[in-house]
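Notes from hallway chat w/ T.B., transcribed later so I don't forget. T.B. wanted the structure written out for a chain they're using in a teaching module, and asked if we could keep both sequence and structure tokens in one place. Agreed to drop them here.
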Amino acid sequence: MAKQLEAIGEIGRVLKQEWRTLVETSIPKILIHILPLFAISKEGEMAAERHVQKRISRANAGYDVLTKIVKQEVSHVWLR
């Protein structure tokens, strides 16, 4: 992960942004497009259906967990 963060650091320097902020703001924006695909993945299902709403809820919870983990990982690497 440290090697990828070095690459992100270079991108941050080019964009004149702190790499940590870049990671923390980019991951949620990427995930917001991916997680709904897990929530509603079967053809013909409607978002109003109870079981689909449960999957959406789990996807949102997964999103929250992933963003927390990413922030912890970034903080861990940052403190080295």
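Follow-up for T.B.: DSSP finds three helices and no strands in the chain. Might be a good example for the class.
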